[in-house]
Amino acid sequence: AAPFNEEHVNRIASEFDPAKLDPLTVWKDPETGETMLLSGHHRLEALKRIGQEQAPVKYFEGDLDQARDFATSS
Description:
The protein has three helices and three strands; from the N terminus they run αββαβα. It is an alpha+beta fold. The protein is globular.
């Protein structure tokens, strides 16, 4: 995995407003039940750094190939 853009993560953390934070996009594998983060890696890292234990999420609808395509284009 690529390292985080520290400036971006720090900006998200310092300007944290739960009402303005876009949900993380996740996909749940129907075969294994595993949930994978597709979009929002910097947001999730910022939330972890400021001690947030919960984050809004939206579920991606599609199969594994579509989820991979979405993750690489986001």
